[in-house]
Design brief:
single chain; mainly alpha; Four Helix Bundle (Hemerythrin (Met), subunit A); elongated
């Protein structure tokens, strides 16, 4: 594994211009807003399941519990994605966006287009 360069601020010549970085910023902000909207809309699915056997059959309860668990896991994944988005926005503000967290080299812009929250270049990701 390569020696980490976390926190090392060397002079960097980013090939991305301010317009490209702004495009990523807007994309990240839109994605964050979308995830937060989905989280708000899915509050109902994560509510506790009614366990009254008189009003709900056993199989229906099992289906409801499974649906609730799936909704809770989707919520956890959304929350983790929001954290990654917020970290990417912080990297944009600090000037570290687009650089590998491990080796400090620039991350290929095509990789960032696929996932703008990525923190590693392809080489470091494969190690």
């Amino acid at each position: 594994m390569k020696a980490g360069v976390r926190g090392a601020h060397k002079v960097r010549s980013n090939t991305m211009n301010e317009a490209e970085i702004d495009k990523f910023r807007k994309r990240l902000l839109n994605l964050k807003a979308e995830l937060l909207d989905i989280a708000e809309a899915s509050q109902e699915a994560r509510r506790p399941v009614e366990l009254d056997q008189a009003s709900v059959g056993r199989l229906s309860r099992m289906d409801a519990i499974q649906a609730q668990q799936m909704a809770q896991e989707a919520g956890r994944r959304r929350e983790a994605q929001v954290v990654r988005i917020e970290a990417a926005l912080q990297r944009i503000e600090s000037g570290d966006f687009g650089y590998c967290y491990v080796c400090g080299e620039e991350i290929n812009p095509r990789r960032l287009n696929v996932d703008p929250t990525t923190t590693r270049c392809v080489d470091c990701m494969e190690e």
